[in-house]
Amino acid sequence: xxxxxxxxxxxxxxxxxxxxxxxxxxxxxxxxxxxxxxxxxxxxxxxxxxxxxxxxxxxxxxxxxxxxxxxxxxxxxxxxxxxxxxxxxxxxxxxxxxxxxxxxxxxxxxxxxx
Length: 114
Fold this sequence. Notes:
Elements: E1 2-12, H1 17-33, E2 37-53, E3 56-69, H2 73-83, E4 88-93, H3 99-113
Antiparallel strand pairs: 1-3, 1-4, 2-3
Helix pairs in contact: 1-2
């Protein structure tokens, strides 16, 4: 059974817009290979780190909401390390009760951008 997760992904600052689009698409492809699906994505922009990590001073933050079987999460993390341009990632499972709130927030953000 699939669970819904919210993932914070940090991509390297060296990427341009096209490179960032390709990196997000690559994450989506890896997710789909494991039987998951991408529900929504929100770009938070480039942010400075509090301290340098691996000689990087900033990165592009992207929040992805996706569905994936619970037993596939570790495989997804391994694929991210091996075959994508993700600098850091962090996942949290979303509570089913909060899904409608998240959907409402996403819809509100989309409407505000338009």
